[in-house]
Amino acid sequence: MKVEEKNTEVSKQNEDEKNQNDKDINIVKEKEDEKDQVKKSKEIEDTDSTNKNETNDIKIKNLEEKILRNLAEMENQRRRFEKEREDAFEFGGFTFAKETLALIDNLERAKTSFSSNAKLKENKDFPKILETFEILEKDLVAIFKRNHVEQITCLNEKFDPNFHQAMLEVDDSSKEPGIVVQEIQKGYIMKGRLLRPAMVGVTRFKAEEDQKVQKNKENYEDKK
After folding, report:
1. Counting Cβ atoms within 10 Å, is residue 169 exposed (0-12), middle (13-18) or buried (19+)?
2. Could you read off the pLDDT of 182-220 as tens digits, one per residue?
3. Rounded to the nearest 5°, which phi and psi values hold at 205?
4. CATH of domain 152-224
């Protein structure tokens, strides 16, 4: 009987130990689960924080780019306004100067008309009248020069479409093709800017004629 009781006690004791071990294991597992949960929570917080920082960096970068674009646009506007102001100051009288050219044109026409009139030439005061025209013309040209309005040089110069306007072609074997040999109307510039092109006569390009001569020569030799 005593042996049975003893065995019963040992068995009970073993069972208690087992239960205790199970409890300890569960406690350990719970603690580990808590640690994992804490770790996961921290990882989530870190991820959220990283994403938030990245979002803030993107916003800051976009804001910086927008500010730089605005600054560049403001600088371009400032330069445009500065250029327009300089042009307005420098070429403010451009239109006036362009229209004033009619004065010197009419003066030259009047002088030419007087000079070619035989009856006026018989007048004893003709030289004085002509001298008056010349004085007026010189004064007007001097006023133009003081305001940076200058005549375009064209005679015996190579034709320049930027400053010359060809009105006719002239046959002149003594000069190269494309040389200005006649000035029909004077041209003017103001501070390097074209007021009016010079109307000119230019020596003819003879490329087509030369080709015809060459072709005729070849045909003649072929017949031989």
Report:
1. middle
2. 999 999 998 888 989 999 999 986 655 555 545 555 654
3. -80, 125
4. 2.30.22.10
